[in-house]
């Protein structure tokens, strides 16, 4: 079973992939959810963010479904 760091990497990669699919930049996501772009970059580079942030970001870019596995 993957350890915590691997799960964090998977979550960050999932969000990055969805941003790319939707054609949304970090700056655009920051505007959509009312955060600073640097905060978005840091969260995604570290992979340290809450599930609430993940859901907020996916909702903001209008992702209705994701494939996890």
Short description:
With 69 residues, this protein is mainly alpha-helical. It has four helices and no strands.
What are the salient characteristics of this protein?
69 residues, 0% strand, mainly alpha
Question: What layout of secondary structure does this protein have?
Answer:
Layout: H1 4-22, H2 26-33, H3 37-46, H4 51-60
Helix pairs in contact: 1-3, 2-3
Describe the fold and architecture.
By secondary structure, this protein is mainly α. It has a single domain (4-60), classed as 434 Repressor (Amino-terminal Domain). It is 68% helix and 0% strand. It has 4 helices and no strands. The chain has helices at 4-22, 26-33, 37-46, 51-60. The two termini are 13 Å apart.
Shape: globular
Main pleated sheet: none
The CATH topology annotation reads as 434 Repressor (Amino-terminal Domain)
The H/E string reads HHHH
Query: What integer is the average pLDDT?
Result: 94
Structure class: mainly alpha
Strand elements, count: 0
What CATH architecture label applies? Answer: Orthogonal Bundle
What percentage of amino acids are in beta strands? under 5%
Compute the number of structural domains.
Answer: 1
Integer-rounded radius of gyration: 11 Å
- How many helices in DSSP terms? 4
Point out poorly predicted stretches. none
CATH first level = Mainly Alpha
What's the N-to-C terminus distance? Answer: 13 Å
- Helical residue percent band: 55-70%
């Amino acid at each position: 079973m993957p350890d915590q760091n691997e799960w964090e990497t998977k979550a960050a990669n999932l969000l990055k992939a969805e941003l790319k699919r939707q054609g949304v930049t970090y700056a655009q996501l920051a505007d959509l959810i009312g955060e600073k772009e640097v905060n978005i970059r840091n969260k995604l580079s570290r992979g340290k963010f809450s599930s609430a942030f993940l859901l907020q970001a996916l909702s903001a870019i209008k992702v209705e479904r994701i494939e996890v596995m």
